[in-house]
């Protein structure tokens, strides 16, 4: 799922309102509705916005072998990479209420591979789709010491 938008706040700013990331919020909601969560029943949708203004959505895909489960955030990153882009600037994550959920440690590290300081908008919705909670953060605050592998380290 991919859409274009030009209403993206400057990279240095956190979104001041949900309207700032409306296309990404809509994409994350749609992805959440398509999530495959037969075990936890906890559906998550995520939408990355890139520096070009493209929106890439992903959803969680559970697996009976729980370690093979794919988080919505990593699913959105995979869609971005498959489309040939590499510069996410924002990510909207939509979950069920009552509180928004922050990305897991693995997702934080995957974000850090492509952006040291991606902006995150986290939204919780009730069963009727009404927003009941939200939070925003920067990756640098959630993962201040991310692992970085330099070319010299690979030798």
In short:
The chain is built from four helices and six strands; from the N terminus they run E-H-E-E-H-E-H-E-E-H. The protein has helices at residues 22-33, 72-82, 105-114, 139-142; strands at residues 2-4, 45-50, 54-59, 88-96, 119-125, 131-138.
Q: Would you state the CATH class?
A: Alpha Beta
Considering the protein shown, what is the CATH homologous superfamily?
Answer: Cytidine Deaminase, domain 2
Low-pLDDT windows of residues: 1-12
Number of strands: 6
| Shape, per Cα inertia axes | globular
User: What is the rounded Rg?
Assistant: 15 Å
Spatial order of strands in the largest sheet: 1-3-2-4-5-6
Helix percent band: 10-25%
Task: Provide structural commentary.
The chain has 155 residues and is an alpha+beta fold. The chain has one domain: Cytidine Deaminase, domain 2 (3-Layer(aba) Sandwich). Helix content is 24%, strand content 25%. It contains 4 helices and 6 strands; from the N terminus they run βαββαβαββα. A 6-stranded mixed β-sheet has the order 1-3-2-4-5-6. β4 (88-96), α3 (105-114) and β5 (119-125) form a beta-alpha-beta unit. It is globular. The termini are far apart. The model is unreliable at 1-12 (pLDDT under 50).
């Amino acid at each position: 799922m991919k859409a274009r938008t030009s209403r993206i706040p400057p990279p240095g700013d956190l979104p001041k309102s949900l309207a700032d990331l409306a296309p990404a919020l809509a994409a994350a909601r749609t992805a959440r509705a398509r999530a495959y969560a037969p075990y936890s029943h906890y559906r998550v949708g995520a939408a990355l916005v890139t520096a070009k203004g493209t929106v890439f959505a992903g959803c969680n895909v559970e697996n009976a072998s729980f370690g093979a489960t794919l988080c919505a955030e990593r699913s959105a990153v995979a869609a971005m990479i498959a489309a040939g882009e590499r510069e996410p600037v924002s990510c909207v994550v939509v979950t069920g209420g009552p509180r928004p959920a922050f990305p897991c440690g693995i997702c934080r590290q995957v974000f850090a591979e492509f952006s040291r300081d991606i902006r995150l908008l986290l939204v919780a919705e009730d069963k009727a789709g009404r927003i009941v909670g939200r939070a925003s953060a920067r990756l640098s605050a959630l993962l201040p010491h991310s692992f970085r592998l330099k070319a010299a380290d690979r030798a």
